[in-house]
């Protein structure tokens, strides 16, 4: 068993009176029913069911349509959390109707909430996913001698126990042949973990997006483990109380239609969406765009069989962190019928969503200039040429992004690990990735980003 410094998971109670529900009459309008939505403003993988959805007002707009059709009035109370655990607590207590969280937290939610029919929940849609798992990462201080997950034995690592980031840490350690009890896991919320890393109280931080990217962007961390090294899907999704779904099917469909609205807006103009999320969350737009730009998070809402299979493969994680007496039955816990209805109502094709892969981008690199101008290119060398040309012309560059050629992870060009092979350059998320490439490309040599910019031929 891994060593945990603090309480494992917030204690969740299943003894909830049926009368205790989040859905209640508004104190400001006796005729208005309040819908409580739990979300994570800084978790980019959930923005289409949280931050972006709220900022755009899509849910309220869809509820207005329900009101016009049925006469029933609704208002929305948005509750912002750092992780999925408190959302699960609120749902079991009947105080949150709809929420969004990562794969491991959803499994914990199902195990806890489905202990009794009164508190049972279901997964209704996907908010964001990665086919290889790149949405969770492990970082250390920039000057740390730790360069790989293999170096974490006998070290202290901050993680939110029960989160997707923690699950990836344990899976990564297992893949590296390191017993979980060789690592001292400090159970902390993301922002506290970030402070602990900066102050040296922990040696590394394992978290979900956008925390790793944020700390690296701020020059407070370096990436040592890319979750895509696991090579298996990770996802975040929308989850709701079954009692609420049964009592308010119109509201649930309105929420899912609103998620589809936000998803379309993000796909149509990811840069504008990134700025909107940045304004609402306080995250730098460059960090948001890292994840929702071309080649980043897949925001396809469909509950694909491959993602459900990934959830099934994650079940052993529950046993590794504690006693979960109610194994999740994914055949009932995953319910795509409401989403199918929402897609059909908005003129979409759910079957097409099931077969769509990635976020429909073939770009390997992208340079974001000032304002809203970006240029997409097909390789890392082209990224260097664009950045050098911009600097030579004194043209501001907001951010430059590359895609790891082996893992497919989108990353900051100036924080990537670069190799030069003749006149060609490759960029990787980690030193492990660069080393693996050099093993099959013996003429490739390490080069810093600054030197790569100097050496690239215009």
TrEMBL record:
<feature type="domain" description="SsuA/THI5-like">
    <location>
        <begin position="133"/>
        <end position="272"/>
    </location>
</feature>
<keyword id="KW-0732">Signal</keyword>
<protein>
    <submittedName>
        <fullName>Putative nitrate ABC transporter, periplasmic protein</fullName>
    </submittedName>
</protein>
<dbReference type="Pfam" id="PF09084">
    <property type="entry name" value="NMT1"/>
</dbReference>
<dbReference type="InterPro" id="IPR015168">
    <property type="entry name" value="SsuA/THI5"/>
</dbReference>
<feature type="signal peptide">
    <location>
        <begin position="1"/>
        <end position="22"/>
    </location>
</feature>
